[in-house]
Amino acid sequence: MKIEKVVVLGANGTMGAGSAEVFAAGGCHVTCLARSADKAAEGIETAKNMAKSEEIADRMSAGSYDADLERSVADADLVFEALAEDLPLKKTFFARIDAVRRPESLVATVSSGLSIAAMAADRSESFRKNFLGIHLFNPANVIVGTEVIPHDGTDPALVPAVVEMMERRFGRVITLCRDMPAFAGNRVGFKVLNEVAQLAGEHGVAFMDYLIGPQTGRAMSPLSTVDLVGWDVHKAIIDNVYENTADEAHATFAMPAYMAKLIAAGHLGNKTPKLGGFYRRVKEDGKNVSLVLDPATGEYQHPAQVAVPRLPFVEKMRSLHSLGCYEEAMQAFLAAEGPEADLARKVVLGYVSYGLNRVGDGEVVREPRDVDLIMGFGFNWAPPTVLVDVMGLKPTTAAIEKAGLPVPKVLRDAKPGAPLFREPHVNIGRFFAA
Amino acid sequence: MTTPTYVLGGYQTDFGRNWKKENKHIVAMMRESVRGAFEATGVDPKDVEVGHVGNFAAELYAMQGHLGAFLVDLDPAFAGLPTARHEAACASGSIAILAAGAELEAGRYDLALVCGVEQMKTVDPARGGDFLGTAAWYDREAKGIEFPFPKLFGRLGDEYDKRYGLKDEHLAHISAVNYSNAKRNPLAQTRTWYMNEDHACRTDKFNSLIGGRIKISDCSQVTDGATAIFLASEKYAAAYAKRRGIDLASLPKILGWGHHTAHIAFDDKVAESAKNPYILPHTRATVLDAFKRAGVADCWGVDAIETHDCFTTSEYMAIDHFGLTAPGESWKAIEDGTIEMGGKLPINPSGGLIGAGHPVGATGTRQVLDAYKQVTNTAGDYQVDGAKRVATLNIGGSGTTSVSFVVGY
Fold first, then answer.
1. For residue A391, what are the CA distances in angstroms to A330, A343, A384, B112?
2. What is the CATH number of the domain that holds B15?
3. Interface check B207 vs A, CB under 8 A
4. B237 domain-assigned
5. How far is CA B74 from CA B68, B78, B79, B344, in A?
6. Which domains are delineated in chain A?
7. Domain count, chain B
8. ipTM field
9. How confident is the model over A92-127, as pLDDT tens digits?
10. Residue B75, domain member (yes or no)
């Protein structure tokens, strides 16, 4: 597949600028388009800062939709759409692209979960055949996990070529997904994030972030992650899944009422620093302090007021992780007793169960590897099969059953003793932080 | 060598990781590399008779000395294992290998574990640069100087310039080749970083000068990492090969080694070599010793080189010191593509220190592990086709301690 000229739409946005950086770093010439050329130039500045290079801009140019879209799209090998997650808006632009693109050019969307088929509806046969989703994660130059999502009308021969190009030329780790709401990474990831947000209504924000913290196999605590992603993005993803799927964990995608209320009041997480999200960062005597949301009242409390009593099993896990004893830490997790350990296992084993249940016929991905890679390299979370390997197949399966969760077919069919995660160059220790 | 030392393989941690962010103790890095080495080789922990650790400055970076003792913590079978830690700045890992090899040759033991390790991302760059200054003559060459080592290796470039002429574009090409190779190495620190020759040629806010002629793109970066390898006597290697159903002859050996130490102060080194065509004659002697002991006539008797490119100037020096060109003519091997993948003698297929990373005490062991991967045809996407012999060069300080190995058949 020969891609030399790329046009990025929405290049002033986070994903647009990040995508432009990825394609320019791979040696393509990238035309960055936005409402105005000045806005597009802001995207190029962002890309330069991501690459830490002035030189990368030698292969980038800025333009506006009005003046440059038709001309640049007519000449492009790849048109990459990174507009807002707004289906009618995207469709308006796809109609313009369809009118001028070369018949063999590739058209892709970076959408994080809207229907690829719906975006391609009403388009020409040529457009539909050459259209698919390429879902990069933010920041795209650092997070290499990427989903490729064909729709029913995508030319089947195109898909392996796109996967190979994204892997070899652009250094991506690819998960091939079916065109289902939120695809694989966000479907599985936001199931966990929203479940933790729901539980925070009852157990508190600080407690849940402590209980499901880095020691359970993630770089960042769940509610801090939601603040980083933005509550608006969180809501868009879980609402989309809640409305358009009906699976065994449907209820975990219901937006907590306290979050809906705060979003209406403008609380969107880190992007609204004055209001905050689960946390609100303030300066106190020159020092940074993270105030913590009380979901019951919508007020923010000083961390000292909501200090969480340390739990022995969590501290034991952290200590073992800090020494590099990941299996021992996660086995201690399975063995821990008490309601807090039960609650933590419900969430973490729920992730394993839900993630691996998305594998198979009629599901989001074909192989466990697909869900593993996007969780590992899109979310920086321990992939589901890594958790099974370190906790042991039989004990994990038994614990999933005990927690009242469905045991995935992948685990029922697995042979004891053989590791499920087989990526020789991946250090599994990287997924467990103390 | 009087009796052969076999390399059974080992394990490298992902040099892109930041272990402080993971909130981990340095023992975690050692544990991952050693457990990984057991898994990769199938060696039984009970068979290990001695352990050697290469580490430069854990006392400074991690407030922890006595790293040899931490090996004992890594496996129940290691209780009572004789261990030691070795320090020779950036050559610490190779010195640990030499120590292990000497014990195997002497017949004291049959199986040695060598673990190189360094955790460096624990402090800010300025403080880390000061710590690295202790690899030079600290009071004379580093105290109160911001980033002393880029300045010292900038002066190596200046010395080339003075004696033979040196173009910075050749240094930029060295950087671009190492970054490009690193993109094919799944454990390389910079595998996702942006770099090319045009960027490396520029001096701007993203690629500023940090020590004389040395720019950011000329430098290896601050890296956390560990590498563990197993070295064995012929007796153990034969039993190991039999157990695994492979030929003893399929196991590579350390065919030769060289080891010399020059004056620690850079000025003294330059003064000593004023009338010598080689700027670092003891480094040249190190390479020649390794070739001689390996029975290799010259550099064209090896298929690839893993060299010490802490800065582009150190690789520039290695090119003529290995003998790819006449002294002062390293630029010829850069211009004609000799050192690139697919070239006549690829240098740093792994990406080297600039591309793969430079966790100081782990670099020597990483080089020998990469040499092992090359000659056993297990280097994956950065494999040099048909490699049977690979030379390494590991340097501590400003060209002070030099160690070279030839690994292969």
1. 6, 17, 11, 31
2. 3.40.47.10
3. yes
4. yes
5. 11, 7, 9, 42
6. 5-176 (3.40.50.720), 185-431 (1.10.1040.50)
7. 1
8. 0.95
9. 999 999 999 999 999 999 998 899 999 999 999 999
10. yes
Q: Does B66 touch chain A (CB under 8 A)?
A: no
Pairwise CB contact (< 8 Å): B13 & A25: no
Tell me the whole-structure pTM to 2 decimals: 0.96
What average pLDDT score do residues A275-299 get?
95
Structural domain that includes position B69: 5-123+223-244
Interchain pair A427, B13: CB under 8 A = yes
How far is the alpha carbon of B104 from chain A, nearest alpha carbon, in Å? 30
Is residue A44 within a helix (H) or strand (E), and if so which, with residue range?
helix A37-51
For the stretch B80-96, pLDDT in tens is 999 999 999 999 999 99
CA-CA distance, A210 to B225, in Å (whole number)? Answer: 28
In a domain, B298, yes or no: no
Does residue B408 register a pLDDT over 60? yes
Nearest-CA distance B20 → chain A (Å)? 9
Q: Residue A143's CB: how many other CB atoms inside 10 A?
A: 18
**Helical segments of B197-262, H only:** 197-201, 234-244
CA distance B373 to chain A (A): 13
Question: Quick check: is B28 in a domain?
Answer: yes
**How far is it, in rounded angstroms, from Cα B176 to Cα B94?**
26
Burial class (CB in 10 A: 0-12, 13-18, 19+), B124: exposed
Average pLDDT of chain B is 97
Q: Is the pLDDT at B106 greater than 80, yes or no?
A: yes
Q: What tokens does A380 get?
A: 């920086």
pLDDT value at position B1? Answer: 46
Is B76 in CB contact (< 8 Å) with chain A? no
